[in-house]
Fold this protein.
Amino acid sequence: MEYHIPDDFDPVARDLVESLLTKDPAVRLGAGPAGSANDYKALKRHPFFSGIDWKNLYRAKPPIRSKMHKT
């Protein structure tokens, strides 16, 4: 399947999306066996998620948007 990421897409988000869409599960971010360079812990360490307190995420308030945006 082909996909297109817009040129103005945030570079950190682009890296995350491309890493998640890697066809080969052996190198796909988050799909590797525990302890590997691409396991779920590596996914959680991706710069896109910097600032996330994973231990207390369930307590966090979700962001509220006043309007839904259509593109």
About this structure: Residues 25-52 form one domain. The mean pLDDT is 91. The radius of gyration is 15 Å.
